[in-house]
Amino acid sequence: KDEIILDRYLDILIEELAAKADILVSNQLSVKSVYVGGGTPTVLTARQLDRLFKAIRQHYDLPQNMEYTVEAGRPDTINALKLQTLKDNGIDRISINPQSMNDETLKGIGREHSAKDIVRAFKEARSAGFRTINMDLINGLPGEDIDSAMDNLAYIRELKPENVTIHNLSIKRGSDYFKENYVNLIDANSTDESNEFYRFSLEEMGMRPYYLYRQKNITSNGDNCGYAYPGHECLYNMNIIEEIQTIIGFGAGSVTKIVDLENDRIHRIPNNRDIQAYKGKINENYLITKQTIEHIGGRHGYAREHQKNQQMRHAEKREHQWKSDSNGMGAKEKKPG
Predict the structure, then answer these.
(1) Which of the four, 2, 7, 50, 207, has the lowest number of CB atoms within 10 Å?
(2) Rounded to 5 degrees, what are φ and ψ at 254?
(3) Dist. CA 98–CA 158, nearest whole Å
(4) Which CATH superfamily is domain 2-234 in?
(5) What angle do helix axes 115-128 and 146-159 make, rounded to 10 degrees?
């Protein structure tokens, strides 16, 4: 039954992929990276994943050696066949997200996997030959402290992912933790100590911080930080935080962000979260996206060369700040969507 429902959803998603393809062609836009996530796309079967990736390649001109990321977050949704399907379709970066390597913590937050499952999934991904593997950890989970961080780091040293993202726990409205005011019950000194431990340890391993963002209702008013070995930084992560490149969203609940660098403005065009409403508004969303991009690129006088120059200046500024800042980072608020 679930497979039938997901097949129907894929029908709608592929319809949207086909509809928006001419936006790139008519505006001479090129794909710089593809990111499939914001959820757990590996809940799809290997057959469904193959269908999705082939539809993307059918409708869009994907350059060779382009960054292509898939969130394979939950290890219980990963197997050797799915990983090989990803690899065969050109995906070169995946994210396996343990959140914690403590089995008691995982059970307490409702995860159905164990540390052993994470290790198994990671080793299968490594055997499949992905260039870059990211792992997400969450600092501030109930019952965890500096000793937990040390245990997590021991696994990181053993597995050697190319990326590690340290999130500070963000309490979502409507969750039990939000109702219990958990965010204000956390020992700020403990989370700060763990953040500093992660920073020192990952940099000692040769990783460098490369993007930073903040969320609402985050523990200790902390930041989320991505670390990577040189050459393995995620382009999509940097672009979505810096907001210097247009990102076209596909799927229910996704958000298209159209960058107007000349006026320092971001145009956000959301897809409805309700599946039927999303399906019913595909054409409307397509037209709004197309007209907005054409307005910025054409009638508004926003020359493509100007956008390119602006992006280069942003990149040079980031590089200068990175060299002059001992941490190599500058905090930036992550905006909704």
Answers:
(1) 2
(2) -75, 160
(3) 14
(4) tm_1862 like domain (3.80.30.20)
(5) 30
